Amino acid sequence: MVRNPHNRPTSSPLSGYTVIDLSAGIAAAYCTKLLADGGGDIIAVEPPEGNALRGWSASGARIAEGEDGALFSFLACTQHSVVVDIDIDSDVAFLHDLLAGADAVVWSRGGVGEHRGFAPAEIRRDHPHLVVTAITPFGLDGPWCDRAATEFTVQAWSGGIVGLGRGAADRAPVFVGGQIGEWFAGAYAAAAAMTARFRQIDSGTGELVDLSMLETQILSLTYYPVGFFEMLGRPFRTERKLSVPGVATAKDGMVALGCGTAQQWFDLCAMVGHAEWIDEDSALSITEQANLHAHQINAWMAEHTVDEIRDVATAFRIPNGPVINGANAAEADHHRARGSFVTNPRDGFTQPGMPYRMTPDVLRAPEPAPRLGEHTEHHRGLAPTPVPRNERGTAKHLPFRGMRVLDMTTFWAGPSCTHFLAMLGAEVIHLESTARPDGTRLIAGVPVSEEQWWEKSPIFAGLNADKKSLTLDFRTERGRELLRELIGTCDVIVENYTPRVLENIGLDYAAVRELRPDAIMVRMPGFGLDGPWRDNPAFAYVIEDTAGLTWLTGYPDQNPIEPYSIGDPNAGIHALNALLLALEHRRRTGEGVLVEAPMVEAALNVTAEQVIEYSAYGALLNRDGNRGPTAAPQNLYRGNDIDEFGRADSWVAIAVSTDEQWAALREVLDNPSWARDPELTTAAGRHRAHDAIDQHLTAWCADRSCEDIVHLLWDAGIPVAKVLQPHRQADLPQLAHRGFFEHLTHPVNPTARHSTIAARFSGGPTRFHHTPAPLLGEHNHELLTELGLGGEDITELEADGVIGSTPAR
Question: What domains are there in the chain, each with its CATH number?
Answer without folding.
Answer: 404-536+568-602+775-799 (3.40.50.10540), 632-718 (3.30.1540.10)
